[in-house]
Design goal:
alpha+beta, Aminopeptidase, Immunoglobulin-like, 3 domains, 9-stranded mixed beta sheet, 24 strands, binds zinc ion
């Protein structure tokens, strides 16, 4: 009698963790001037390595270049993303100094990959233990055994953005969000990588076992409507989706807005870090036959590469410095028309003082704030479609004095904080075309056109309602759009 043992095996076209490690190591050795490999952490239960590869010229130097991140395999069975990342890495290094566009990107971007984020979940799939496994292997019941029906956390519900509103609190669930936000090493490594890098864009690769495949999801739709950068995030997402031809060859990937109020990577990366992040649901199933893989990767490449192209066009960028020392500053950059005060501030990076905001062509009002420095306000800054507008900013340290000099002009106000009335004296009122009063989220409360020597503001808004206690900005505008700004703390 012959016993037939039928085991579902994964096609050899798919990389095991060892093969990923071997290939990345070979690439880092062979192309050592443009590729570097790092182990950024270890998986939660089995302590398997989590790799990051950086591709850029002068790869060992942190250069002032737009940074783009690609992540695959939050979910264990969604192995096509690993293949797309590996395919892209090979394509970039082998075409450097061969293809002029790729050479330009490698020279002028910092391109990061985390190609296999959930290695212990991946091993469950690749070893055929459960080819539909989604989570990592956290030992939820602490029995020292890996229980398919009870263990594991969904790493794509473990980020600390609306964490408790997403996924499931039930350990056996495929969507178990974990015992606490960032309880999982897989999430900690992404958090730490994103804290030390200001990624402009991120693609995170998934596949759908059930439901809709061949979709690009972008953040977000939530209780309060759409995300503040919605029109720009959407436009970039649309460009990605339109570039990726579907498996049938009769259309392209679909663009859908994603739900924003849970601890998914795309919500955390956008909500907390300001990184425009896209979830690409690759193909129509998680594990496709091996012969389809190269073709799927090739078709996805153009969508992924669009981010490298777009990081150099259509937006406003610049560096923020201390006006005295020239030291780069991490400061808050607010695009007034696209601002949500409930989200963490969008900061320039501390290494270069660099900010980069992706926008559509148009004019924008921009505020730059940093504690201890006088804010700067820029009106009608033009963003163009094909280039990045440069806006370099020098911030002046705030002194203990309430007099602010600007050429031969001074604004004098009575000492901070003030109660009930703010007296503003302009030694040369003709210098100013207007004096405006803003609150800290950029709402214009009051305008004094053709200001006089002395303006007495009763701490009221346009409708003469008393304003609430807090910080306000007095902004003197001139013909040359030079702005003189004064912070005032009001206790009404
Ligand atoms: Zn997924």
């Amino acid at each position: 009698m012959i016993l037939l043992l039928f085991i579902f095996t994964i096609d050899e076209r798919y990389h095991t963790l060892d093969e990923v490690a071997y290939e990345l190591d070979s690439i880092a050795n062979h192309y050592s001037s443009i590729a570097s490999l790092d182990t950024i952490g270890y998986s939660t239960c089995d302590s398997l390595p989590i790799f990051a590869m950086k591709i850029s010229d002068n790869v060992d130097v942190n250069e002032d270049e737009p940074e783009v991140l690609y992540i695959a395999l939050h979910h264990a069975e969604e192995i096509l993303g690993v293949e797309i990342c590996m395919y892209m890495i090979h394509d970039l290094v082998s075409n450097y100094n061969v293809d002029s566009t790729i050479t330009h990107w490698v020279d002028n971007r910092e391109i990061w990959f985390v190609p296999l984020l959930n290695p212990e979940g991946h091993s469950v799939v690749m070893e055929g233990i459960d080819t539909t496994w989604r989570k990592n292997k956290r030992d939820n019941n602490n029995n020292g055994i890996f229980d398919l029906d009870y263990d594991g956390v969904d790493p794509n519900r473990n980020y600390d953005f609306h964490w408790s509103a997403g996924g499931s609190s039930d350990p056996p669930s495929e969507y178990y969000r974990g015992p606490a936000p960032f309880s999982e090493n897989e999430n900690v490594v992404i958090r730490d990588l994103c804290r030390t890098h200001n990624f402009v864009f991120c693609n995170t690769y998934h596949s759908a076992r059930t439901g809709l495949g061949e979709v690009v999801y972008y953040p977000w739709r939530g209780d309060g409507g759409y995300s503040p950068d919605y029109p720009f995030i959407r436009e970039v997402g649309d460009s990605i989706a339109r570039r990726i031809i579907n498996d049938q060859g009769n259309g392209h990937y679909l663009l859908l807005v994603g739900w924003g109020l849970d601890g998914r990577a795309r919500n955390w990366l956008y909500g907390v870090c300001g990184t425009f992040t896209y979830c690409i649901e690759v193909s129509t199933d998680c594990i496709q036959p091996g012969w389809m893989v190269n073709d799927i990767c090739q078709r996805n490449l153009v969508g992924a590469y669009y981010l490298l192209e777009r990081a150099g066009t259509g937006g406003i960028t610049g560096c923020i410095y201390d006006s005295l020392t020239g030291e780069p500053l991490s400061a808050e950059v607010i695009i007034n028309e696209h601002y949500d005060p409930n989200l963490p501030p969008r900061q320039s990076d501390s290494d270069f003082g660099r900010f980069l905001r992706i926008l559509k062509a148009g004019v924008y009002n921009i505020e730059i704030h940093k504690n201890g420095y006088e804010s700067k306000f820029y009106q009608n800054v033009e963003a163009e479609q094909d280039t990045l507008t440069e806006l370099n900013v020098q911030l002046k340290r705030m002194g203990g004095t309430f007099i602010m000099e600007n050429n031969d002009t001074a604004i004098l106000i009575n000492p901070n904080p003030v109660r009930g009335t703010v007296t503003i004296q302009l030694t040369n009122p003709l210098y100013f075309t207007s004096l405006k009063i803003y609150d800290t989220i950029g709402r214009l409360l009051k305008i004094y056109d053709t200001p006089t020597n002395e303006i007495v503001w009763q701490c009221t808004d346009k409708l003469n309602r008393k304003i609430s206690n807090g910080i306000y900005w007095l902004v003197g505008e001139t013909d040359e759009q030079i702005l003189v700004i004064k912070k005032v703390v009001v206790f009404n």
